[in-house]
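[Meeting: bench + compute handoff]

Bench side (C.D.) handed over the final construct sequence. Compute side (W.E.) agreed to return the predicted structure before the next meeting so the bench team could plan truncations. Sequence as handed over:
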Amino acid sequence: MFMTGSLLPWSAVTDGRAPASRELDLKRILFAGEVDRHATTHVLLWTQMRSGSSFTGDLLTASPHTFYTEEPLRGSKLSGMAESVAFLKDILQCRFSEQPRFLNKWLNGVNGHDYRTKLLCPEFPGVCKGPSLVEAMCRAARARVVRVVSGELGVAAALLEDGGLSARVIHLVRDPRALLASRERFRNGTHGKYLLAAGMGFRQEEKDPSAVCARYRRDMAARSSFVRLYPDRYVLVRYEDLALDAERVMRRLYPFMRLPYTAAVASTVAFHTLRLEEEDHPYSTIKNSKSTVFAWRQHLPFRDMERIQRECGDVLEAYGYRSFHTPREYGDLKVSPLSLTEEEVNR
């Protein structure tokens, strides 16, 4: 079936039809332009590394009405905010031809990006030699989602101000103790029992509580401005709230992206969050999220946790995280690290 306003080849690669029929669908989207006129939302999932953004991004793009680009700023060697803003605008407006180096990274890099598009490349390799397919699929989407893990939240201000975009920011935060505990587990090319590819670890400054929480504070200042200036186009999401009740949070975020929360989306959300067996791989996005969300307390010694609290006390308080004062309190897993509800944090 040729679904109006959706990313059409999604049906083409899953309905079992002959390659010739799928090729016809591909030609229709490549050469007919947008299948249907629709409002486009430019969604920025803004966060820091090890905040659960891969998991969150997969849930946000469960709808076939989305086009997904991951971590465009990371490793881009851009100099200054102006270049970062211009680069993100090109991605949000589907101008991949303006960024040939990133297009090659998009098609051939380790990130999944928009897997519906990338699924077509092995079968139709000719269309993936240039930007035509990627740009066409991007233009067909109702929501273009970009996951940003490098660059401070303040960079998004220029995109929210831009009248040529319909930009919306989903600001994802995680307990800094959990974030730092996760980063610390990347050691000597390993994460627990897993061997990692070269360059997948963190520099020492990225594991330093003082530096990390300074970044949190700068993002908090930007958040204060966004709440005042763009109350309908900025939303804060704690990773912990998402992990504990993903469906409830996604039912709030899909309308924010101007997308329907369908039964198919709900099924994908359940698949990603209700895994019965434990998954400890550092880049897995399929897990029993309720059982893993606070697992960092079993890896982070009380002394190290105390040091993070000393550096990040104001950050913990601002985002509704509880401080622990004794080893006994910290070791009691019945005491939640959350001190405020999701609703209280967003007031």
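W.E. noted at the follow-up: Confidence is low (pLDDT under 50) at residues 1-22, 31-35, 193-198, 281-286. C.D. will use this when planning the next construct.
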